[in-house]
From TrEMBL:
It catalyses: geranylgeranyl diphosphate + L-cysteinyl-[protein] = S-geranylgeranyl-L-cysteinyl-[protein] + diphosphate. One of its GO terms (molecular function) is Rab geranylgeranyltransferase activity. Residues 16-285 form the Prenyltransferase alpha-alpha toroid domain. It comes from Phytophthora cactorum. Binds 1 zinc ion per subunit. The lineage of its organism: Eukaryota, Sar, Stramenopiles, Oomycota, Peronosporomycetes. Belongs to the protein prenyltransferase subunit beta family. This is Geranylgeranyl transferase type-2 subunit beta.
Amino acid sequence: MSTDDESKSQPPAFDLALHVKYLVGLKNKKEDFESCMTEHMRVSGLYWGVGAMALLNREEEMDPAEIVDWVMQCEHPDGGFSGNVGHDRHLLYTVHALLIVAMLGALDRIKRDECATYVASLQQPDGSFAGDEWKEIDTKFTYCALSALKILDRLELVDVESAMAYIDTCRNFDGGFGNIPGCESHGGHIFTAVGALSLGFALEQYVDDELLGWWLCERQCDSGGLNGRPEKQADVCYSWWNISSLIMIGKLDWISKEKLIQFILACQDPEDGGIADRPGNVADIL
């Protein structure tokens, strides 16, 4: 394991009520500095907030009807969603919007065919997916596209086999994946690559689970948290990406879950609620 300087003191218990208060409060914040700086990705912020509340079985406290009505204002006439009302549509915000309305039981309000056609139109000749009309390529967009089409029950609209083969071109000698061919392995990109391969039922074909499992478990630091790549600090976000990948390849028992839980608990804000990336830092929705 790599080392870091995070505190090793006993963490506090999980404060459910305080975190619920924090999440509900974030939904109503629209004019503070942080909200203004993230205006372009408000749909994604709502996804993380609603997702957290759903995990806590408290999503009804977020005013689901109001949230769904607002998300539907971000729907493009020709399918797909933008990150905020009046912005350009993008694959990332499209899948987050779909996940929000799915969690809140409102998928019937989506323009299903138009949305699926938009997502499918972003597949490139090499099997990859662009995020939007400007053609940026990234493994996360393949994951977003397949996730969206799975939700919409329209996977037949794209060449899944070609998408799987493209993901394989992003695989590295260490078993991990980069965001495009030739880029270093990275916890976030591994999650999107493995997630896409899982959706395409191609994990056994394209993943060396022993090699990848070793790379992922090596990300656990002395603090108990996991980092995103070698020689970096542990943080909660990368811990989530990495353990999600470990679960998908059946290697979660290769890390200390107890130490990871202690690390996450130590990242709580004991006064205002929420969880930060590292102990002592400011909490955020991600």
